[in-house]
Amino acid sequence: MKKGVMRPGHVQIRVLDIEEAVKHYTDLMGLIETDRDEQGRVYLKAWTEVDKFSVVLIEADEPGCDFMGFKVVDEAALVQLEKDLVAYGLDVEQIPEGELKDCGRRIRFTVPSGHAFELYADKLYTGKWGVTEVNPEAWPRGLSGMKAVRFDHCLFYGPELAAVYDIFVNVLGFHLAEQVLDPEGTRIAQFLTVSMKEHDIAFIHHEEKGKFHHASFFLETWEDVLRAADLISMTDTSIDIGPTRHGLTHGKTIYFFDPSGNRNEVFCGGDYTYPDHKPVTWQAEQLGKAIFYHDRQLNERFLTVLT
């Protein structure tokens, strides 16, 4: 049943030095700064995104992710989803309109894995950056760095994946696109979507609650991913792994770190899915190939470096 969640809307990332972080996300990744607020938060967007922002940076004592937000179709859907979350037994916090600049009211809740999520219906529509809505050119001039196309998804590490699945699928209307099962048949990784994308959000089992693995941004081509790798080396940016291909989702990818230690991904390609597709299943003994299809073995940093 359609619940009304449309797509990922934004992520708030904690950074240790705001100006250093802004330089990373704009000069290297190619996001565009759109605003700042009285709290010192910096608002950013990728050039194809039509709303004012998708990334919020906030200076803090430790890195990580404060929350991820999803946009819903309208206020009626927001009201109904709030009722459904409360009926499920979750505490829902009201965030007033304008607390994030030019964003409508939000409702925030924390799932059993320890991660906070938001739903909202309204955000200032600014259109794609640098191209017109009538007779648009192919791309805007003046983009920097990797020229990120959009904020795509986040991956979180935490416990109680079954309960998280129940909330996202049965309350919020996501469906399961891919999964990893251990030998006993327990799901230890789940890739969930409300679109044709292979995932709008993903979770991997981890004993400690509330850990942030990465925020991911879409690029158009494999050549763009290779160019991103060149830029990572040109700027002496800390790299995790890649360029390579995932088995899960089959996306072509590279992982690296912002100056505060938060992991970023840029990727291209990947599978598509519809709600009538059966989930793609990987067995845990094939996890190395599932995550890094070419190397077929896990990089220790990928499993242990979390914020």
Give the structure's gist in a few sentences:
With 307 residues, the protein is an alpha/beta fold. The protein has helices spanning 18-28, 75-88, 161-171, 222-234, 287-291, 300-304; strands spanning 5-15, 32-36, 42-45, 55-59, 64-72, 93-95, 106-110, 116-120, 150-158, 175-181, 187-193, 201-205, 211-218, 239-245, 251-257, 263-269, 280-283.
Give a structural overview.
With 307 residues, the chain is α/β, with parallel strands linked by helices. It folds into two domains: 5-120, 2,3-Dihydroxybiphenyl 1,2-Dioxygenase, domain 1 (Roll), CATH 3.10.180.10; 150-304, 2,3-Dihydroxybiphenyl 1,2-Dioxygenase, domain 1, CATH 3.10.180. Helix content is 19%, strand content 35%. It contains six helices and 17 strands. The protein has helices spanning 18-28, 75-88, 161-171, 222-234, 287-291, 300-304; strands at residues 5-15, 32-36, 42-45, 55-59, 64-72, 93-95, 106-110, 116-120, 150-158, 175-181, 187-193, 201-205, 211-218, 239-245, 251-257, 263-269, 280-283. The strands form two sheets. A nine-stranded mixed β-sheet has the order 14-15-16-13-9-12-11-10-17. The radius of gyration is 18 Å and the shape is globular. It starts with a strand and ends with a helix. Residues 7-122, 150-269 form the VOC domain. Pfam families: Diox-like_N, Glyoxalase. Belongs to the extradiol ring-cleavage dioxygenase family. One of its GO terms (molecular function) is catechol 2,3-dioxygenase activity. Keywords: Aromatic hydrocarbons catabolism, Dioxygenase, Iron, Metal-binding, Oxidoreductase, Repeat.
